[in-house]
């Protein structure tokens, strides 16, 4: 059972107060939609939970399974199982998408980040890439390098589905997607939620295919 708790969270960016006393609790298998107008602070909340250094917590706490994570570096939070699919990912042309995913999986498994991927990981990555409507060449391109808006959203989802974080945060996961893409992302979110039910020993229900 996993529990993310945000309590009385107030956050400043460059000295400007953005979030005021935000409270949120999310447990295993729950899908929570955070809605609000442009500029209301959704991305700020996600980036604060992810540990972006620009977001200064002036009050409150963020706990994962009872442990405060606010003093942890972003990479430590990823290792604890918190992963964010960004609203506007920054391209990293120097690193192939497949290399990034392999490094993330290696880190999670306690291996060296440059270790080769396992045959199972390659097979799963290849299958998910196709199911998400990406081409094999996207895996060998730089991360988000020249990706269309919709391709970037699918690539962010690929990382989440491969990494299987305890807490998956998706910032505007459907923006820029075509109709098929929106359906695929919706089913991917359902698949992640079912996976959490699975590891929490609930019985998963329904079709988990993405297409
Ligand atoms: N460095 C900064 N200086 C001043 N204001 C900032 C800074 N960074 C963010 N903000 C403001 O914080 C507010 C919240 O921004 P945020 O990106 O969290 O909103 P959002 O709810 O994700 O919006 P959207 O729906 O457009 O994605 C905005 O008004 C934004 O202009
Ligand atoms: Mg936003």
> How do the strands line up in the largest sheet?
2-1-3-4
> What is the level 1 CATH name?
Alpha Beta
CATH superfamily: P-loop containing nucleotide triphosphate hydrolases
Helix proportion = 25-40%
CATH fold-level name: Rossmann fold
Low-pLDDT segments, ≥5 res: none
H/E series: EEHEEHEEHHHEHEH
Anisotropy-based shape: globular
What structural class do helix, strand and pairing data support? Answer: alpha+beta
Count all strands and give the number: 8
Overall mean pLDDT stands at 92
Rg, Cα atoms, Å? 17 Å
Q: Kindly estimate the percentage of residues that lie in beta strands according to DSSP.
A: 15-25%
Count structural domains.
1
How does this structure look, described?
The chain is of the alpha+beta class. It has one domain: Rossmann fold, CATH 3.40.50. Helix content is 39%, strand content 24%. It is built from seven helices and eight strands, in the order ββαββαββαααβαβα. The strands form three sheets. A four-stranded antiparallel β-sheet has the order 2-1-3-4. It is globular, with a radius of gyration of 17 Å. The mean pLDDT is 92. The structure holds adenosine-5'-triphosphate and magnesium ion. Adenosine-5'-triphosphate is lined by residues 13-14, 16, 18, 36, 38-44, 87.
